[in-house]
Amino acid sequence: MNYLYEIHFLSQVKYELIVKTLGDFLNISPNQIGTSVEYYDLFNTDNELQVAITVHHFAKGYRTFITIEHLRFAISDLKLIQLAFEFAVRLKTDVTTGDLTNDTDNPMYITINPQGKYYQSYDSRLSQSYNSEIIDFTSYTDEAEIEDYFSFLDNE
Asked: Running DSSP on this structure, what letter comes out for residue 11?
C-alpha cells in the first residue's frame, strides 16, 4: 500500500480520537475522513471524502500507527510536523513521524513529545533486520525545541 504520511503514537489511540484531531487540525468535518475502502466507495459522489487513513494497533512498543493514504488537497512539510505536534499535545503521548530534513536514503524520524520537545530518531528494528514486530524508535540526537524545527522548515 502506498501512502503519503505515516505517524506513530506511543500510546494506544482510538480511531475516533484520531479522526477528530485530524479533522480539527485540517479544518474539515470528521465525516470527511474515512478508510481507503470508504474513500474509493464514495469517490465522485456527493459524499466524497477528503482524507483516507488506516489505523493499526499493537500490543507493545509504539501502540498506534496511522497512514494517511489519500488527501484531496496538499499540505506543506511544516503543516505535517505541526499536525504531529498537535497529536502529541492533544493526545498527551509521544508521536513519531518522518524527518523531513533528512536527505539520506535511510528513513529517519523525529519524535515529538507533548511538552514541545523533539529529537531525531531511527526505527530500532533497523538494528534487528526488521525481525521484530515491535515498532520502537531510538534517539540519535539531544532534545530540542519543536519551534526550532518549525522555523527550519518554514525557511526552506
From this structure: S
